[in-house]
Write a structure and sequence with these properties.
single chain, about 500 residues, alpha/beta, Amidase signature (AS) enzymes, 2 domains, eleven-stranded mixed β-sheet, 11 strands
């Protein structure tokens, strides 16, 4: 499914939005029990939207760049239809009174929301297993995780259910599931896309971004979502980039003009990218990919990011500290779940039972970690030290770009998708999955994961992702570089999961 082609067909009348949506809903229903990618499907609402678009087309009214394109939305992004649960019992019955700015812009451009996708509760996880409503399964191998926390969105795209899905990325939650599911995931520069309507996990890190089957569709979605928003003081008042001009098969990118050459592209490969934490087969794919890019004309430079080894620790201090503060609002008083207690129960008892029953174990763990690192006596040792490490990590990236790198190139993850349940009893092992993604998040930089290749693991073919990290506000150059890389690596398109619909 290609969003640009769908929209073009709806606009010129060769396809009806209603037919596209009906086909999408049939696919979702057929795959639901198998994948568990969706928490809610808005069948009637989506068909009403599609009928309205078809009526406008019949009246020759102008239609937007996403006219009739079915999209899925991660269920921590507010939508004034259905529930916004964050995959948590705490918000199981919460109906948002408004729609997130980024999602509203997609709807205004003609996109049709067909449903809400599963995630790790409140975005806290790397496997999509920490959901109060059950896990999502990877379309490549249903015994494996799809990655997290935007696992439902990535699985929906990989299985061919929708061409574009919205995700959110705090420490890798768009890029890591995109890598595990063999699709494209793009985290924008912090401030490029409004966070208004994104249920907060870690406010200085959270960003909304697209997951899609092509770089072209990611660029199309981001070009619509980007821009300043008066409801979000952290959104940047910068001119919007014409991102679609840098992606797709019908553009004039330098690689297409030169028959797939990467001449002039400078890629910095950190020494960390060949660490002992990497799966051997995944490392071989990365090394082979870098060699292919170098033979195609890219200049590959080995670079040092001296503080990269501290990124995971710094991230889990900062993110949990902000999570503890953000999730304090779920107290059983203002909104959300409230535990049933005797009439004579104390306020403290109500708080305790509500938060114990309403939050899952991983969310509870991160709240406790965040509370600890902000406690008097530990604040300077942990939180302030993590903030200093964050600044040094950002400086390391700035030095690499100042030295002439167009993008920093790493694996997206240390290995392929792991088995369901394999890391649930070992949180530190789960956190280590973020080793390559948290650096860009801490520095606020744009980053994209694209499929690099596949490996054989226990009889299954599993995708491996390649991450490119760009300069702040450099999405146009990053998308151009990613498109050129993909044209070299996959001139005939990405391999699909064996049972993709």
């Amino acid at each position: 499914m290609n969003a640009r082609r769908i929209a073009a067909g709806v606009r010129d009348g060769s396809r009806s939005a209603t037919a596209v949506v009906r086909e999408t809903l049939d696919k979702i229903n057929a795959a639901h029990d198998r994948l568990g990618a969706f928490l809610a499907v808005f069948e009637d609402h989506a068909l009403e939207r599609a009928a309205d678009i078809d009526a406008r087309q019949a009246r020759s009214e102008p239609l937007g760049p996403l006219a009739g394109v079915p999209i899925a939305v991660k269920d921590n992004i507010c939508y004034a239809h259905g529930t916004t649960t964050c995959a948590s019992r705490m918000l199981e019955r919460y109906h948002s009174p408004f729609t997130a700015t980024a999602l509203q812009r997609l709807e205004d451009a003609g996109a049709i929301v067909v449903g809400k996708t599963n995630l790790d509760e409140f975005g806290m996880g790397s496997s999509c297993e920490h959901s109060a409503f059950g896990p999502t399964r990877n379309p490549w191998d249903e015994t494996r995780v799809p990655g997290g926390s935007s696992g439902g969105s990535a699985a929906a795209v990989a299985a061919g259910l929708v061409p574009i899905a919205m995700g959110s990325d705090t420490g890798g939650s768009i890029r890591q599931p995109a890598a595990f599911c063999g699709v494209v995931g793009l985290k924008p520069t912090y401030g490029r896309v409004s966070r208004y309507g994104l249920v907060a996990y870690a406010s200085s890190l959270d960003q909304i971004g697209p997951i899609a089957g092509t770089i072209e569709d990611c660029a199309l979605a981001l070009s619509v979502m980007q821009g300043v928003d008066p409801h979000d003081a952290t959104s940047a008042d910068r001119p919007g980039d014409h991102l679609c001009a840098h992606a797709g098969s019908e553009t004039t990118s330098a690689d297409q003009q030169s028959g797939g050459s990467l001449a002039g592209l400078v890629l910095g490969v950190p020494t960390l990218s060949r660490g002992p934490h990497n799966d051997a087969d995944a490392q071989a794919v990365f090394d082979s990919t870098v060699g292919t890019l170098e033979r195609a004309g890219a200049e590959v430079r080995e670079i040092r990011l001296p503080h990269a080894d501290h990124a995971v620790a710094a991230y889990y201090v900062i993110a949990t500290a902000e999570a503890g503060s953000n999730l304090a609002r779920y107290d059983g008083v203002r909104y959300g779940f409230r535990a049933e207690l005797p009439r004579d129960a104390t306020l403290e008892a109500m708080y305790t039972r509500t938060r114990t029953e309403g939050f899952g174990r991983e969310v509870q763990r991160r709240i406790m970690l965040g509370t600890h690192v902000l406690t008097s006596g530990y604040h300077d040792a942990y939180y302030l030290t993590a903030l200093k490490a964050r600044r040094r990590i950002a400086e390391d990236f700035a030095a690499a770009f100042s030295a002439g790198c167009d993008a920093v190139c790493t694996p997206t993850t240390p290995g392929p998708a792991f088995a369901l349940g394999a890391k649930l009893s070992n949180p530190l092992s789960m956190y280590a999955e973020d080793v390559y993604t948290v650096g860009a998040s801490l520095a606020g930089l744009p980053a994209v994961s694209v499929p690099a290749g596949v490996v054989e693991s226990a009889g299954a073919r599993l995708p491996i992702g390649l991450q490119l990290i760009g300069r702040a506000w450099g999405e146009a150059r990053l998308i151009d570089a990613a498109q050129r890389v993909v044209n070299v690596l996959h001139p005939e398109g990405f391999e699909l999961p064996p049972r993709a619909l």
